[in-house]
Amino acid sequence: MKIILLFFLALCSALMGLAQDTIFMKNGSAIPCEIVKANSAEINYKKQGVENKAIYSALVVDVSKVKYQNGKIVDYTAEINTLNISEEKELNPANSMRFSFGMYINYFNRNETDDLLGFWRFWNNNNQLGLDLKHRYFSFSLGMVSPIGNKRTWIGTHLHLYSTAKGTINAQNYYYGANEVNLRAFLMNVIIDYGRSISRKKNVILFFEPTLEIAMVSGNINMFGTEYTEFTMSGGPGFHTGVDWIISKRITFVMRAGYRFVKLDESHRKGDSYDYNSFLAHPGVNDEVVRINWGGFIFRTGLTFSLFSKIQ
Known about the structure:
Oligomer: single chain
Number of helices: 3
């Protein structure tokens, strides 16, 4: 009889041990308990074998898995990894091309020590005169980039279009009449993008961008009561670097700094004439024409809106 009683007690103890929940912590410990409530932030439980039925809590970030008395196992590490992977895929869809449209505000600091400044001072007989510059203007871009490999590397290209304000380069002076310089530019950049993600979530990308800069300058120059209509076109290299911060799947914050190397031969027509000529940079010395320097430091910041297309 005693043997049967002992066997019955042992069986009950084993069954009680099986009929409990167990919380496995990331530090390696296990907590036999009765789970009262569980959510995405914490797990509330009562300890087994303790007369004080106080409710304790464990943070989900510290839990590796939970085994319930019905045999169900919840692996919290797998859920967290799945969440991170899903978030990353949402920001940077795999095997996709990102097409973007962007709008920016730009800051430009022209290197003004050029023939145009010398020309202005020479014909106004005043070496103290300068040329004013409007530094800020707006621009927009159309582009496409794609992640490759493990999505740490990005390559692509885009077209950036600028239109500076009227009188971006301007000056006025009175010397034997009202003299004036009033020039603006339309610029088109063809840009090659090479980027490398620099954040854990791969949503901050450092870009290096060699560019081909094409400039068209227009406006007018008035000298001694005669108006000359300006138009000239040229190109040159440039280089930009900066970051893309992917805020969401559609919106990206963009910041770039760089330098452009563009100089243009001055070209004008007088009055109603359709014949174009150029002013000389050093009259009476040589036949070199005035070269307008539209190069210098550039900085831009703005937002892009993106659409995605799967790469087959």
